[in-house]
Specification:
It is built from 3 helices and 2 strands; from the N terminus they run αβααβ. With 116 residues, it is mainly α. Strands 1-2 form a two-stranded antiparallel ribbon. α2 crosses α3. It starts with 23 loop residues before the first helix and ends with a strand.
């Protein structure tokens, strides 16, 4: 039986290393350039979020004092002319920054004005 051996045509005896080496100043320049590109992209993309120059109109409200036994549902149902009591409740909670629907007697609430 015969054997066949192949020798590579070209054998490199030295490994090639990259000739580009960055100094501390070079790394700083690359970092700052990258940072400027990212900030410029963020500035361009954020340019679409623009507000108007005019002030908005606040919703008309009135002050209601909570009587003993009153609930937020009861107050909202008196105000809601279109039958959307839950929506009026959410609006009252938002206007008064309420954490819960519990009310205390004597508490003053800002409520939307009825539109009859």
């Amino acid at each position: 039986m015969s054997t066949l051996s192949l020798a590579p045509a070209f054998v490199s005896t030295t490994a090639r290393r990259s000739t580009v080496r960055l100094t501390r100043r070079g790394r700083l320049v690359v970092f700052l350039t990258s940072l400027m590109i990212v900030l410029a992209a963020a500035f361009v993309l954020a340019g679409g979020a623009v507000g108007t120059g005019e002030a908005g109109q606040p919703a008309p409200t009135e002050i209601v004092q909570v009587a003993p036994g009153d609930t937020l549902w009861g107050i909202a149902s008196e105000i809601a002319t279109d039958g959307d009591v839950r929506g009026v409740m959410n609006e009252i909670e938002r206007l008064n920054a309420l954490d819960s629907t519990g009310l205390a007697a004597g508490q003053k609430l800002r409520v939307p004005v009825r539109t009859d």
